[in-house]
Amino acid sequence: MTPVRVVLVDDQALLRQGLRKLLEVEDGIEVVGEAADGYEALRVIGDRRPHVALVDMRMPGMNGVELIVRLAAEHPEVAVVVLSTFDEDEFIFGALRGGATGYLLKDCSPEDLVAAVHRVSRGETVLGSPVAARLVAELRHLPVSPVAFRGQELLSAREVEVARMVAAGAANREIAARLFITEGTVKNHVSSVLRKLGLRDRIQLALHLRH
């Protein structure tokens, strides 16, 4: 099996060394590069072509959110996992809107970090428990915008309906029951919406429809 190639992006050399030692003892993970800031990260990622980048949020020159946005535009094939001490809304929402596929706090367990690297490399989204709880709580207080959202003209009327229900937190089973369609049809609609809007998952869709 091809190992997951990882680049570490953090301005603290000691932390990068610790992460490298932690990850390199794991089967199926290869640390292929390090960077101390966002500009260096863009160069290293361009040269080393990793599958996953572990990114800190506060770095000199270019912060984590700015780097994530650049990576989403220039290297969309790279899955970005934020590894940060900060759980403020500004960082969480900024990172996820920017294209991050994971957000973990630095006090997470080694097992959770290793699992996250593997999961995001498979296209999954990973949120640490405190981050997920914070995100859910905040989304509940952010109303779904009643006005047309960016890209709505690309969707069918039924897809718009499904998108708004997803953004409101409804599960596929609930959407299917309310619209009198099958769960499989709901899944197809959600996949179509994500593809047309250029979004990765339901979390990004929810953020996209909430302003």
UniProtKB/TrEMBL annotation:
Keyword Transcription regulation in record: yes
GO biological process, alphabetically ordered: phosphorelay signal transduction system; regulation of DNA-templated transcription
For molecular function, the Gene Ontology terms on record are: DNA binding
The modified positions for 4-aspartylphosphate read: 56
Q: Which residue intervals define the domain Response regulatory in the entry?
A: 5-121
Q: Which SMART domains match?
A: HTH_LUXR, REC
One matching Pfam family:
GerE
Q: Which residues form the HTH luxR-type domain?
A: 148-211
PROSITE patterns referenced in this protein's UniProt entry, alphabetically: HTH_LUXR_1, HTH_LUXR_2, RESPONSE_REGULATORY
Question: Keywords assigned by UniProt?
Answer: DNA-binding, Phosphoprotein, Transcription, Transcription regulation
**What is the superkingdom listed in this entry's lineage?**
Bacteria
Q: What is this protein called?
A: Response regulator
